[in-house]
Amino acid sequence: MAINTKVIHSGQKPEKQFGAVIPPIYQTSTFSQLAPGVHQGYDYTRAGNPNFTNLEQALASLEMAKAAVVFSSGLGAIAAVLMSFPAEIKIIAEKDLYGGTKRLFNEVLKRFNYKFDYADLQNTSNLESLIKKQKAKFIWLESPTNPLLKIIDIKKISVIAKKYGLILVVDNTFASPYLQQPLALGADIVVYSTTKYLNGHSDVIGGAIVTNNQKIASQLRFLRKAVGFNPSPFDCWLISRGLKTLPLRMKKHSENACKISEFLGSQQMVARVYYPGLKNHKNNQVAQKQMKDFGGMVSFELNAKKIQINKFLSSLKVFILAESLGGVESLVCHPVTMTHASLSKKELQESGISYKLIRLSVGIEDASDLINDLKQAFRKIA
Ligand SMILES: *Cc1c(COP(=O)(O)O)cnc(C)c1O
Q1: End-to-end Cα separation, the chain, in angstroms
Q2: How many structural domains compose the chain?
Q3: Which of 98, 140, 189, 203 is the best mutation target for the ligand 1 pocket, counting ligand atoms within 8 Å of the beta carbon and taking the most?
Q4: Is residue 238 domain-shared with residue 301, that is, in the same domain?
Q5: Does pLDDT of 351 surpass 90?
Q6: pLDDT tens digits for 282-325?
Q7: Any catalytic annotation for residue 171?
Q8: Which among 169, 196, 299, 338 is the best mutation to test ligand 1's pocket, defined by most ligand atoms within 8 Å of the CB?
Q9: How far, CA to CA in Å, does 353 sit from each of 128, 238, 297, 379?
């Protein structure tokens, strides 16, 4: 079946008792047992719930994977992945990771003796020597990255990972399984913040992993139960609902973002536009090869003074000034003062994130309304 059909039907069989077309919300903490220790598949919601299973079936089917495991948040899923391996392991990570992931790695997991080495994985020339030197166990990356939308060649990295027996983890939150399927490109584990495009409506925090390795999946289910990384049944139900329009939404996000990136490129006050779909994007070739379309995230540098940049941001009316991404509504974010505020000056400079940088999560509104909104904000600072 094609992904358009799977998002509607996988894990969404009509309920048996009354034939409800939409599976109900199993809003229960516990399940009655037929006899001591004899239950009907579920005993306690921290360990499992039909709404978890429904969403897991759908997520696994989208990537033709053997298993998916849902979590309370993207960061919960990420923490669980590393906690399911012994501490003291070494991880080579892409240097441009989601800020919360870096905080989890550097401020929490390092205390448990996990070792992280950051590298620019656009360039693989030093990767093999780094792997040998560090005796690493994992490679961890995101593509597209946040907020500069670098594209990492997943297949190329996976060949190196396989050669040295490393586990490759790809955080596929920005692309979603509609645009990019890391398992098919050689990744071992895919992680998601379902908060973003998978749910798509900015009303739930959730996470998931997808893998073909059943052993890893069952370790992760164990951890979810043992640590309490479980989501709520209602949140899973909402994500299952949001998922049904993923292909429609991703098409529209990509179409709008493409138009907006072209519009921004034509603006005098815009010094630079970062969008993987633009021919002048440094990784456009890789993006064309591994993605179905280029997604809804666009970043750009506004060549203006601080007060003008602030005025631009507060003049937007359709774009909402807020963190996060992947919802139907368009958001604008100022990485230096918002999502990346916890990075040091040096880290910001190394990552190429300046005060001038603005990140858009382009929603599915009409493109002309979004462009008009940007136009009126440009006029205010002209
Ligand atoms: C948001 C995000 C996360 C964290 O997910 P939460 O659901 O907020 O915990 C991890 N990775 C990426 C790329 C994200 O955008």
Answers
A1: 51
A2: 2
A3: 98
A4: no
A5: no
A6: 999 999 999 999 999 999 999 999 999 999 999 999 999 999 99
A7: yes
A8: 196
A9: 28, 34, 16, 25
Domain boundary, last residue among 243, 269, 292: 243
Torsion of CA 301, 302, 305, 306, to 10 degrees: -70
What is the C-alpha separation between 303 and 308, in angstroms, rounded?
9
Active site residue 46: yes
Q: Could you tell me the two tokens for 180?
A: 């990019």
Nearest CA to ligand 1 atom 7: 74
Q: Are residues 217 and 89 in the same domain?
A: yes
What would the pLDDT profile of 196-232 be if each residue is shown by its tens digit? 999 999 999 999 999 999 999 999 999 999 999 999 9
Answer yes or no: do 144 and 51 share one domain: yes
Same domain, 161 and 273: no
Annotated catalytic residue 369: no
CATH number at residue 360: 3.90.1150.10
Which residues span the domain enclosing 352? 246-381
Residues in a beta bridge with 210: 68, 190
